[in-house]
Amino acid sequence: DAGVIQSPRHEVTEMGQEVTLRCKPISGHDYLFWYRQTMMRGLELLIYFNNNVPIDDSGMPEDRFSAKMPNASFSTLKIQPSEPRDSAVYFCASTTAPSSSLHFGNGTRLTVT
Amino acid sequence: QQQVKQSPQSLIVQKGGISIINCAYENTAFDYFPWYQQFPGKGPALLIAIRPDVSEKKEGRFTISFNKSAKQFSLHIMDSQPGDSATYFCAARSGNQFYFGTGTSLTVIP
User: Fold this and answer.
1) Would the CB atoms of B97 and A107 count as touching at under 8 Å?
2) Contact across the interface for B96 and A102, Cβ inside 8 Å
């Protein structure tokens, strides 16, 4: 079991640039979640998918953020244009049916200068 | 609005001591309460979890105490070790969504 795989591990970009974060969930997990972690706000749910379909995106900060899950083994979180306040660690997590706990990837640390 | 309130924000304990982290919630729809452990540079990992029909769950040195009437639950780490130094998050689930506390940074001094 390779676990949830996220890439890149670190991303440094300039304000205004497009950023794409990637996630490969654990095989067989049909729920995928994107979280953002900051010192001030802790872990915040951005969006989650079930069977590749977005179910709740109410946590997405604004239209600059978008997420897709084109198939069961891949998801992206895109920020366009990026801003310094987007600097955070972004986690992807997956799970099976709701009775199970989340399995997190190791995150992508995003720095926007 | 924080759905799950966690305290303290940081905790320093001597090796061999007991570490206690507390969480409180209001939403009675929560039906599953996991604790996650996070080391620097890593994602949170499930440590132990409890359902509201049980008042206590123990796994090795880690125990969850759950008080349904008070809407509170806590993590106790017995015989704390330097390797336990990490950030701990409590969480609560409603439907398909998990709500996390703000985390407790635990440092165990040798």
Assistant:
1) no
2) no
Q: Does pLDDT of A98 surpass 80?
A: no
Pick the residue of A32, A36, A40, A102 with the most B CBs within 10 A to test the interface with B by mutation: A102
**Distance of alpha carbon A82 from alpha carbon A15, whole angstroms:** 5
Partner residue opposite A104 with nearest CB, options B45, B97, B101? B45
Which 3 state secondary structure label does DSSP give B53? coil
CA dihedral sign of residues A64, A67, A70, A76:
positive
The residues, any chain, with a CB within 8 Å of residue A28's CB and separated by 6 or more, are A96
Question: Is residue B105 within 8 Å of B11, Cβ to Cβ?
Answer: yes
Cβ pair A102:B46 closer than 8 A: yes
pLDDT in tens, A50-89: 999 999 999 998 899 999 999 999 999 999 999 999 999 9
Cβ(B90)–Cβ(B2) under 8 Å? no
